[in-house]
Design brief:
235 residues; alpha/beta; globular
Amino acid sequence: MIRSLWVWSAGVFLTVVCGVLVILFSFVDPTGRMIHLFARIWARGILAAAGIKVDVQGLENLTLGSPLILASNHQGFFDIFALFAYVPIRFGWITKKELFRIPIFGYAMKRFGNIRIDRSNKENAREGLQAAARKIREGQSIIIFPEGTRSIDGRLLPFKKGCFHLAEASRAPVVPISISGSFEIMSKRNFRVNPGTIHLVIGRPMRVQGTHEDSRNGFTERLRQAIMENQVPVW
């Protein structure tokens, strides 16, 4: 319990400090390099405070210099820190609207260029995906959780079709990222933080071919299968 209180206290402190820096530098740094640097410092600081190590495989599958769609499973809260800290390209997030309401953090997310999605409103969600596709065509990589939410038991949930539509609209390759170990560190309905190792396995890029129903379902299932096959056993 004491460890968890320490991690949450360190997390709040780092979020306030790095959030303010992201907001300030977003007005003077058109390249976005500094705000991404502060985001990585934020993420690595929280991982260090929690005693969490991150093992990364498959970095050679990231095509540097061209925009990508990074599609990851979502086991737990610490997925975000692991991806921010150890995926060595600059990217924005597609994330739920509730996070934008958090003081400082929410405004920093907006200045960072993240895309807000209202999961309860199909029209808003569609507009969010269109905005994300525009950012990709303009050269920014985007990360998305195809499950739409964190898994309750750590196992892979069914994938929604948003990733297919995003890839179809942007014509960018989709890179599957498999996360393992995050659920054991902190599950969805638990605030206790356990030390451990998060494994990130970056798979080979995939491309959408065709636009009909079979292509959409087939691509979504292949993406899910690729993420499932690259997960690392942690028990």
